[in-house]
Amino acid sequence: QVQLVESGGGLVQAGGSLRLSCAASGPTFSTYAMGWFRQAPGKEREFVGTISRTGGPTSYAASVKGRFTISRDNAKNTVYLQMNSLKPEDTAVYYCAAGLFTTKASSYAYWGQGTQVTVSS
């Protein structure tokens, strides 16, 4: 069992930056790939990015590639999402998840409660 808690969300102007953190409990954090997803009002949850168990390979959605960076610190049981050059369309609740190294939400077994990111124009 893995429990995930996101933090770092908030209100930022377009063009600004935020760094989200996701802290995991339990000794098995390093055995999971970690993904970030987001859900805007009235829209389905969408893939943002994922990072492998070791922190090597990463994969990003086309809409965020070059602007967002995922990293992880297995010693601290934490994964990060650095978001730069934010746009109003990035406004959503952001979720971290633990599971397989994939873009599919169904392949992630554990989810955090989400943190709100709002980008003003």
Question: Any overview of this molecule?
Answer:
The chain is mostly beta strands and 121 residues long. The protein is built from no helices and 11 strands. The chain has strands spanning 4-7, 10-13, 18-24, 33-39, 46-51, 58-60, 68-73, 78-83, 92-99, 108-111, 115-120. Strands 2, 4, 5, 6, 9, 10 and 11 form a 7-stranded mixed beta sheet that branches. A 4-stranded antiparallel beta sheet has the order 1-3-8-7, with no helix packed on it. A hairpin with an 8-residue loop joins strand 9 and strand 10 (108-111). The radius of gyration is 13 Å and the shape is globular. The model has no long low-confidence stretch (mean pLDDT 97).
Describe, in short, the structure shown.
With 121 residues, this protein is mainly beta. Helices cover 0% and strands 50% of the residues. The chain is globular.
User: Could you say which overall geometry the principal axes of the C-alpha atoms support?
Assistant: globular
- Quantity of strands, as a count: 11
Provide the helix percentage. under 10%
Low-confidence segments, ≥5 residues, pLDDT <50?
none
Mean pLDDT: 97
The oligomeric state of the chains shown is single chain
